[in-house]
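Q: Given only this backbone (134 positions), what sequence would you predict?
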């Protein structure tokens, strides 16, 4: 029988230091986009401050919100990558500018990274996961 701890406990170290997501020819290391990641919370608060009233009123421009979220993820969630290539096929150095550009050029990739970083599965506490499986 499962308890809430078995189902929802996460590894705080993984949430902040990140986990590697393997896309085959390239890998990306991401931290969790949640309240457990203080850097994410701090960057999110700072970046959304100028539009906080519009967000609260449901009047924020969706394009601006997405642009802000790309910056937040590039600054506080994506911690690095290996094997990522640009449109020209050349290796793409990991930095905030390149990350935002990649997310802008490939919105489906950004959506996948958001989903991975927001979910619980990658950040589960392995010890509790192992216990639940026994």
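A: Predicted residues:
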């Amino acid at each position: 029988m499962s308890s809430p701890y078995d189902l929802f406990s996460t590894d705080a170290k993984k949430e902040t230091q990140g986990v590697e997501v393997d896309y085959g020819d390239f890998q990306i290391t991401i931290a969790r986009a949640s309240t457990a990641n203080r850097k994410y919370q701090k960057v999110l608060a700072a970046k959304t401050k100028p539009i906080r009233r519009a967000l609260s009123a449901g009047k924020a421009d969706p394009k601006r919100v997405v642009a802000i979220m790309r910056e937040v993820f590039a600054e506080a969630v994506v911690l690095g990558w290996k094997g990522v290539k640009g449109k020209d096929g050349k290796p793409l150095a990991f930095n905030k500018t390149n990350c935002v550009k990649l997310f802008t050029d490939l919105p489906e990739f950004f959506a996948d990274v958001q989903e991975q970083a927001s979910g619980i599965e990658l950040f589960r506490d392995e010890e509790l996961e192992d216990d639940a499986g026994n």
